[in-house]
């Protein structure tokens, strides 16, 4: 497996639940290292741009409104197979379908308020990392 970087966002529901540390612990225990991080209140424009791939979907406006409902914690995770490893830690999009012990099974309330975002491919990871972090703010770990 290759060393990869992926973009992770702890969504407003999980920030409000005060579980940033518990989620970071899961990343670290799985061998993922935090290579960049910041807390941010997304603007509507930033959230729309980030999820632009979904703009024609019926859930798009609800998704954007949710993502701007409070601050998010944004991080770059680095490690072997980081993209898939993070998706495995997250669990299925709908927490009802998420495997026991995954972040969404343990912390998400609904398909809308589902605790975390993770890049879904290496290609999208590079785009999403660059969306939030200049190269100088991402550190080789
Ligand atoms: P994310 O992008 O946030 O990591 O989530 P994901 O890959 O697991 O799911 P994706 O298909 O990319 O959808 C992005 C977010 O939109 C909301 N969604 N709602 N009501 C619905 O059918 C529906 N489908 C997706 C979810 O909050 C999902 O995280
Ligand atoms: Mg997605």
Structure, explained:
- There is one protein chain.
- The relative contact order is 0.26.
- With 141 residues, the chain is of the alpha+beta class.
- It contains seven helices and four strands.
- The chain has helices at 12-16, 20-29, 44-50, 60-67, 82-90, 103-107, 122-132, and strands at residues 3-10, 33-40, 72-80, 116-118.
- A four-stranded antiparallel beta sheet has the order 2-3-1-4.
- 39% of the residues lie in helices and 20% in strands.
- It binds ribavirin triphosphate and magnesium ion (MG).
- Ribavirin triphosphate binds at residues 54, 59, 63, 93, 111-112, 114, 117-118, 120.
- Residues 54, 59, 63, 93, 111-112, 114, 117-118, 120 line the site of ribavirin triphosphate.
Q: What's the structural blueprint in terms of helices and strands?
A:
Blueprint: E1 3-10, H1 12-16, H2 20-29, E2 33-40, H3 44-50, H4 60-67, E3 72-80, H5 82-90, H6 103-107, E4 116-118, H7 122-132
Antiparallel strand pairs: 1-3, 1-4, 2-3
Bound molecules: ribavirin triphosphate and magnesium ion (MG).
Residues 54, 59, 63, 93, 111-112, 114, 117-118, 120 line the site of ribavirin triphosphate (RTP).
InterPro entries: NDK-like_dom (IPR034907), NDK-like_dom_sf (IPR036850), Nucleoside_diP_kinase (IPR001564), Nucleoside_diP_kinase_AS (IPR023005)
Subunit structure: Homotetramer.
Pfam families: NDK
